[in-house]
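Re: the multi-chain job from yesterday

Posting the exact lines I submitted so nobody has to dig through the queue logs.
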Amino acid sequence: MRLTDEESAMLAGELGEPRRWAIAHQIAVGEFFDAADFVAVSQAHIMADTESLGEAGIQFLEDLAAAPEAERRVRVPTITDPRGIDFAVYRRLGQTTEMVALETRAITALRAFGVLMTDTCINYQTILAPIRGEHLAYGDTGVVIYSNSVLGARSNFEGGPSALAAALTGRTPRYGYHLDACRHATRRFRLTATPRDLSEWGAVGGIVGEACGSYWEVPVIEGVAEVPGSDALKHFGTALASFGSAALFHMPGITAEEVVFTGSAPPALSIGRDEIEAFVARHAAPGDKLDVVVFAAPQLSLFEMEAVARALDGRRVHPDTTVIVATSPEIKHAADRMGLTSRIEGSGAVVAQGICFYQSYAREMAEANGWTRLMTNSAKLVNIIGGYGYRPSLAGLEHCVASAVAGRVL
Amino acid sequence: MPIVLRCHKGIGPAVTGTALVAADNFSARYDLDRERGIFSRPSHKLAGQSFADRILVLDTAKGGVATAWMLHDMAARGIVPRALIFNRVNPILAQGAAFASVALVDRFEGDVTQLFRTGDELRVDPPAGLVEILNRDQ
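And the result, structure tokens for all chains:
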């Protein structure tokens, strides 16, 4: 990679150990992807839940954070993805004091770098949405695909170590979705039915994702009859990124960039009512005892919180079923202020802030609470959670709530 | 003479080990029980099999960014694949391999899930961009 004088100085350790580690890590990754040079970024977003970090990751952060302040301060505004623990509700979820201790250590270390603890995977709805053409180092696949696609920003998936490295150097290797050539469309889909709710938008994302199956594929979705709205594209994008590892999609007339195909346009694959219903039916389990209902992954917007509150008004969650609603700290504060939290919790549901369920020791929660059957309106969560020992079902919000009240999958 | 297969220059040190091959994809969060060292996702083609110290040969990386941290923690606990051979990875797997110093190579001529077989004894050399099959000649 071509390095500037400042980048060479970082690599030589002249700006301290944190920046030396950071740029050496970035060069290893950049050379793997044939990056010619670095590009400046305006924000970084770090995924650093303690289940992923483990003891070794936390120790790494603490060691780096022990450097003098001038050497460890991040160079661009840097925010965080959901954590593993909400200190206000962890006991109700069967999480442990050992997990709390790890979380406290990780937060202390991250704050020492000057990281802003936003604890959210919906920063594009709640913190500061990027603008078209802005280069970023974002570290959550749902955040990246929404920012790249809907907003026209430019980021690769930056895992925790790489997002921290970008925060410390203020730049990232110029490869992948920072380059025009990578943003050209490679696959084509035609939507012939309108998804009825957020779970079905997630199902469509899952179908497209499974068909693409690679970070380097860029799907175009034609035939979208109505502008879907931010929450619909949030669920669509997070499922597409989860099932397909995709980081960019185009919807002509809706998303930010003009569609340019790599070569001639390929034939379009149709996605209609039958395909959506078949996707949902894969995980159907009518009649099963229902252990836990999760509204999360991604965290809920204020409008989603209001919809959950409305669905639960005047109802009581079955005593053998737990309902968890996860949102960002900003939205939680708004929900508290607007009475949504009390309406949701009045039904027996738990509102958690700053976590996102699957990043929150899901296996240990399942073991502590005896949970197996999970129901959610998030296609992304359905994709992830099987590996943690759950049997997930996908359904719309109203269906999930009715099942939670009945204590079994309806 | 061992079979020598060339690829893009990779990440991490040269290592030798035994291949575990499947035409499937990979995420440390989605697919693994990292405490027990096995593939735990029921639908994964390697479900129930141990990944520790094996050279994993798979198609590509799945969604999710957690693998970037998880490989590092798995390496610290000694329950980690010895090397990763993929057709093509996403940034997360490359970042995770770089952070954890786990050998990683991709971009071969041909499909790695066909080129390699479970049980092959392999020498993976990321700096040189090649993999040798040591225990068969065709």
